Amino acid sequence: MTSIAHGIDLVEFGRIEQMLQRHGERFLDRVFTVREQADAAAVKNRIEKLAGRFAAKEAVMKLVGTGWRDGIAWTDIEVVNNPLGQPVVTIRGRVSELAESMRLGPITLSITHTANVAMASAVALCAPEKQEA
Question: Is residue 133 a part of any domain in this protein?
Answer without folding.
Answer: no
